[in-house]
Every structure is written in C-alpha cells, then in structure tokens.
Write a structure and sequence with these properties.
The complex is a heterodimer of chains A (167) and B (302). Chain A has five helices and five strands, in the order ββαβββαααα. The chains are: A alpha+beta (167), B alpha+beta (302). Chain B: This is CO or xanthine dehydrogenase, FAD-binding subunit.
C-alpha cells in the first residue's frame, strides 16, 4: 500500500508498504530516517520513541497504516538547521551518551517531558524515562542531562524544538 | 494482508461483520508485538484509531448509579489525567501499565479484547462491577464484566463484535490497586489485586489479576468483609480494623486464586503475594475511609 504522512514537518510518501509492518520500519527502511533505533520490537526498550501527533509512542508498535495522514516527529527533527535542541545540547554537555543506541529514544522522551513540565522533579524525570532502557551504563548522566535541559529550557522561556510543527 | 481503516463506528462494525477473522488494532501494544515477532499473520488488520467516538468518555447513569462510559479507544494516559478522581482504582492500575509511551497508546478496549489473565485494567473493573458494551451490526449488548472473561485470552465476544465502551460506576469510597513485578515499569504482572469500598450500599468489590485462567473477583472475601463491617457498625462509625478481619480477608482472597507456575512466578508465591496485597490494600483503603470526609456515600454523624 501507499502511505502518506508528515514527518518532521515535511509531507512524505512511502510505496509498497506491507500492511503488517511498523511505522519504525517505514521510517528506517523506506524514508531514510534511521535515527529511531530498532531493538526490542515489543515496546520494551523505548529506543524507537517518536512523536505521533505530538504524543511520544514506540514506533515499533504503530502499524504503518495507522500513521496515514498523521504527523510524525523523529529525533532527526529535534534540531533546527543551526542548533541542537536543548535536550541534545545537554546530553552532549553532560556526557550522557555512551554507545548511543538508546539516545534517540531518550531524547524524544526527554524533549516531551521538558516541554510538558517546566521544572521536573527527579521522580518525574525517572517516570518519564521509565520506558527507555540504556544498557551501557547507569542513568546518572542521563538524569543530569535532563535536569540541565529543563533548566535551560525554563531559562530561555522558549519551548524547545519538538516533533512536527509543535509550537 | 488487508489493512482496513474505517472512518467511523458503523463502518468498523460493517467491516468486522464482513471480515469476522479481522484482527482489530488500536494501540498495537499486543497486536504489533505478535506481528513483529512473526507469531501471527492475520489476513486482515482492522484499524480502530480513526474512530473519534471510541476516544470519548462521558458521565452517565445506569440503573440509578452514577457511572462513566469510557470509549474503548481512550488510552491509559487519559484515564490517569482525566478520570483519576471519579475512578481512582482504574487510574491507579493505569499508572502501572508499561511506560509513558505504552500508556499513550494502549487502551482499555484492547486490554479487554485481549482478555489476558494479566491485564492490568481488569481487576479494578471487577472491583467496580463494570459492564462491557459490545456492538455488532446485529445490535448492542451490555454484559457484566464477571461474565466477560471465559478463558485464557478468551472472552464472551462474538466474532462480529467489537468493544464499544466500558461502563464503570463512579467511586463512592476508597479504592486501591497493587501490582507485583520485577520493577516499577514495563512489567507484566506477577499478580495484581484491586479493592473498592462502596459505603452507600455497604458493599466491597475485589479483583484479582494473573491469579487464575481469567481475571476474577473474590466473592467470599467481599461478602465476609462487607458483613463484618456492617455487623460492627464500621460503615457509619469507622474504627481501626482488627487484625483478625484483615487477615481473614487476605486468606479468602488467596483462596479465590487458582494460579499457575510460570516464568514470572510460582503458584505458591502468587498465592502468598495475593494474601499480602489484599491485607495491605484493605489497610490503605480503610485508613482513607477513616480519615476521609469527602465520600458522598455516607455522611459522618457528629
């Protein structure tokens, strides 16, 4: 089937999509957007987290056809042409990346959090990231990065870049 | 494979009538896992995410009881955000489902249609005597949740039916839910327990999950506790519960279970855990009842 959807603010079309494949497969294999990672394929690890109509979801659990005419935001859409998004900048600054496989999903989940909750508590950060697994290391630097991103985000008064054309 | 994308409810019912083997998919948290792992290759997928009315909830009255009618497609995240006060037990259970990503997609309708013995939404629905509204092109019927589950992942739904909504009575007293798992997120329950106090009718509701081939309530535990509370005039004049009562309640809940050994836990562990969960959740609920004046069911006398 043919699939029309909006990804990171751009209208996109994928052809010959198999009806049983996931949005994750479409993004990675048909639309050239390999930022969202494919690991567990059962919603367990969060490394494929994307925005679907501005809500974070596991792309591996969205049937491709369910994304027809929907708005998808991936990690590739977080930064603008010039600058990294606050969460990306903070992950770099805090050294919150090791192998990097879980990072795209964590970035989308963290981006959603800091745009919903201006001053998240540690408990709120942990809860927001409960669906994202990192197998390299502990979560301390990731926690630090999200705290930093939230502080900077609150400081600028500008909501960070998010999926699609979210304002 | 066919992918059917009905735009409205009547189209969905027609599609299900014409393709009784079609697999309905909403949040995809069960169906997509089976597809991704090649465990199932349904000939037809029936996408329900475009049907706006499934994503709505409303306040209703059923046989004089204030209720909430929850469309089958309302995700867990909205049960938490929007219905936490009216349906606290269900909201507590919803908070334990998966992760934020899963709660943004997973629905109560999908939980019911999958009819897993481990479904987190089922115990609070049992404790509230919820009713399930099923619909097909032949018409609509509403059945008590006690009659909905017929076996492991089997329900009373006919092949042409879809879950339209769930009717849940608004809480009139404290409700609690507790779940055992290896961590605080992303776990399939080792076992779960829900309890609800219904002071206005001197009633007690219970629900057990991952404890038997189907989710089930513990009627003997409910009757015992309700009678004990009435006998001691505890509904109108709540005092600390004697240990003999919480202990017996826990025993009766554990006796209602028929668990198995599996990868998540042994039958023996589950039985023990249910006993503990029942005692604990009852204590929490009772503390809340003793401390609370906000419940409309029974006004405290001066």
């Amino acid at each position: 089937m043919r699939l029309n959807l909006n990804v990171n603010g751009r209208a996109m079309t994928a052809d010959d999509v198999w009806e049983g494949e996931s949005l994750l497969y479409v993004l990675r294999e048909r639309l050239g957007l390999p930022g969202s990672k494919n690991a567990c394929e059962q919603g367990e690890c969060g490394s494929c987290t994307v925005y679907l109509d501005r809500v974070p979801v596991c792309a591996c659990l969205v049937a491709a056809g369910q994304a027809q005419d929907r708005e998808v935001g991936t990690v590739e859409g977080l930064a603008d042409e010039e600058e990294l998004a606050p969460v990306q900048r903070a992950f770099v600054d805090e050294g919150a990346v090791q192998c990097g496989f879980c990072t795209p999903g964590l970035l989308v989940a963290a981006d959603d959090l800091i745009n919903r909750v201006p001053e998240p508590s540690d408990a709120e950060i942990r809860e927001a990231l409960a669906g994202n697994l990192c197998r390299c290391t502990g979560y301390e630097k990731i926690m630090a990065a999200v705290r930093t991103a939230a502080e900077r985000n609150a400081g600028t008064g500008i909501s960070g870049s998010t999926g699609g054309d979210r304002e | 494979m066919d992918f059917l994308r009905p735009a409205c409810w009547s189209e969905a019912l027609e599609a299900k009538a014409n393709h009784p083997d079609a697999t309905p998919v909403a949040g995809g948290t069960d169906v997509m896992v089976e597809l991704n792992f090649d465990h199932r290759r349904p000939e037809t997928l029936l996408d329900l995410t475009r049907i706006e009315q499934l994503r709505e909830w409303s306040r209703t009255e059923r046989a004089g009881v204030a209720s909430v009618r929850i469309g089958a497609g309302v995700p867990y995240s909205r049960l938490i955000d929007e219905l936490g006060t009216s349906l606290p037990g269900l909201a507590m259970a919803a908070r334990t489902v998966g992760s934020p990503q899963i709660r943004n997609r997973g629905t109560l309708g999908g939980n019911l249609a999958s009819a897993s013995p481990a479904g987190d939404g089922h115990p609070p629905l049992l404790a509230s005597n919820a009713e399930i509204e099923l619909e097909s092109v032949r018409g609509s019927r509403t059945i008590p949740i006690e009659e909905f589950f017929t076996g492991v992942k089997r329900s009373a739904m006919a092949s042409d039916e879809l879950v339209a909504a769930v009717h849940v009575p608004v809480s009139t007293g404290p409700q609690q839910f507790s779940k055992i798992g290896t961590r605080n997120a992303m776990v399939i329950a080792v076992c779960t327990f829900a309890v609800a106090l219904w002071p206005e009718r001197s009633g007690v509701g219970t629900g057990l999950g991952s404890a038997a081939p189907t989710p089930r309530s513990a009627p003997e535990a409910e009757e015992f506790l309700a009678a004990a509370l009435t006998e001691a005039d505890q509904w109108d004049d709540p005092r600390p519960l004697p240990d003999s009562i919480t202990e017996r309640f826990g025993e009766l809940v554990a006796q209602a279970a028929a668990p198995i050994d599996d990868v998540r836990g042994t039958a023996g562990y589950r039985t023990h855990a249910l006993h503990v969960l029942a005692r604990r959740t009852l204590s929490w609920a009772w503390d809340e009842y003793r401390g609370g004046t906000e419940f409309s069911g029974r006004q405290r006398c001066a």
